[in-house]
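Sequence in, structure out.
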Amino acid sequence: PGTRVDVSARTAEPFERASLRVLDDEPVQAELAEGRDLSASFVIRENGSYQFHLHSSQTVSLSPEFGIEVEPDLAPTVELQATSDRIEIEYNRRLPIAWSARDDFGVDRVEAIVGEKAVPIRDPLENSLGMEGSFRKTPQELGLEPGQEVELVIRAWDNDEVSGSKPGDSRSIRVKVLGPQASS
């Protein structure tokens, strides 16, 4: 839902004008070039069909009906790149994590979920279908103390304004915070 569809067709014979009917709505004017090249646009709302109405003198010819099958919007796909599913790191060193997020509508924002806390990572500068970056925070900047162990997930939100923004999560990793000098 919300996807804009551009339709073009070419007729076997020339017509004077054309319109497009989507679902049960009233037909709207379609562009007709050289009497045969049709083009029109519409926004997907629900399952149904669309059809061209072709006008010539006093007659109206109807194209076949073409089906519209709406697919639900999926959450963003989020990948987390880390050397292991368990990281032990000094509280004042940056976490060695990279991430990428992709969505068919566009990524609205990306955050890290550290334990129960959401930490903003990045908002896109413009509507972007994908984003990537490095997690540049230290455990200390996240408010974590030596000895703590938490789950970390990267979460991206899409910008679907039709059916609502949805989150997508990466796999989780465990982060154990060490003191200023690491010890095993």
